[in-house]
Amino acid sequence: QVQLVESGGGSVQSGGSLRLSCVASGIGFSNYCTGWFRQAPGKEREGVAAIDADGYTSYSDSVKGRFTISQDNNKNTVYLDMNDLKPEDTAMYFCAADWAIGWLRLLRASEYNYWGQGTQVTVSS
Which long-range CB contacts under 8 A does 25-31 form with residues at least 24 apart? Predict the structure, then answer.
């Protein structure tokens, strides 16, 4: 059974930083594509960052230069380092994974079948 568990969310002030973690069981991240998505109340789920099995990364324009996705295959964990956080980054953040997603589709939520429960990030001004 595949399980993804996110952690690291919290409340920070504008300009602050957080590191989100996503630990997987039942799959190995080294063979999967993994993405971070976020959803604010009343808004659609948005792809933020993703990494494929070859280490190729993709970022949404809204976080490019501020967020970094990385993975530690030994720990079967994917990270999202978030710097210079802004109030508009406030959302529930989800980790997702699936097999063999084309690099042009890495930020599409519909491409992923495995999802975590999410971790809340709140940024105050």
Answer: 25/1, 25/76, 26/1, 26/2, 27/2, 27/97, 27/114, 28/73, 28/76, 29/71, 29/73, 29/76, 29/77, 29/78, 29/97, 30/71, 30/73, 31/99
User: What does the pLDDT profile of the chain (125 residues) look like in tens digits?
Assistant: 999 999 999 999 999 999 999 999 988 888 899 999 999 999 999 999 999 999 999 999 999 999 999 999 999 999 999 999 999 999 999 999 999 888 889 999 999 999 999 999 999 99
Contacts of 115 (CB under 8 A, 6+ apart): 4, 94, 95, 96
69: closest CA among 50, 41, 43? Answer: 50
Write out the two tokens for 71. Answer: 């993975």
- State CA 112 to chain mean position distance: 12
**Could you tell me which of 53, 59, 55, 34 has the C-alpha nearest to residue 111?**
34
